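Quinone oxidoreductase, pasting as requested.
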Amino acid sequence: MAKAVTFDRIGGPEVLQYGNAEVGQPGPGQVRLRHVAVGLNYADTYFRNGTYPIPLPNGMGVEAAGIVEEVGPDVSNVAVGDRVTYTGFINTLGAYSTERLIPAAPLIKLPDAIPFETAAGMTMRGLTSAYLMRRIHDFKTGETILLHAAAGGVGLIVSQWAKLLGLNVIGTVSTEEKAAVARAHGCDHTINYSHEDIAKRVRELTGGQGVDVVIDSVGKNTFIASLDSLRRRGLMVCVGTASGTIDGFNPNLLAQKGSLYLTRPALADYIADPAEKAELAEEIFGHIAAGRIQIEINQRYALQDAVQAHRDLEARKTIGSSIFVI
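Structure tokens follow.
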């Protein structure tokens, strides 16, 4: 029988429940998908703790890779036997499962060169990295970025991609182990925020100028340091809030700190157009297949260990990508 992780109230990792799941026949526009690997993303914790409000009870997880087992009426983009991957938002909730029904529209055909585990560890992170590198800013060779959580799943992809574009990368990390990993994947310099002043160190590394772009997935704890690390008219990209949401922000602060720009993008808005989604997917898949970008999967869990997986994720014990192996 199929298994799934669900939750019926918001809270800590303990609200996650592993059990049997009924999987029926696909209806119009749906497929029945057998998962091989499932992605574990920090965004999952936002659904669980109520940062992203959703109807309850509900399934957990928005990313997985597997094989199409059955297609319903009016499905033309995939066929039985296709290898596929997906990521999304509310429309793909329920990924923490061995098999499921899912709308066919979010599915992306998986190139033969990309293993299922790699896909589960990089579809969300890879598409996020793709829009950060190709849509947010017109990067030019020689520009410098400050990348928070540089040893995380997105961080490792972005740093490698940044080097392909000829950028200088300063990455922040919490441990020396993570610093070594970040440097091995493209960071020119690392800052250990547990004992170093981020903005002060950035100014030292940039001759007092500051960086062109900050990519900040941490949020509350790094927001001011990120603004203080930017050059005049630099761009702050707030792409996540792992340490908490940023409250009480006055836009005048941007003027006071150098006429800065600020954006808070969401992946959903960069993959809403099927053509743009396909273009971004093709680019990241191409880099991975050619070996230009490596996907580091350093944590593998069984589905029944979802509670522990969320605890590890929130305790910042993970490096690179994490997946559930079915």
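Note for the archive: The chain has a mean pLDDT of 96.
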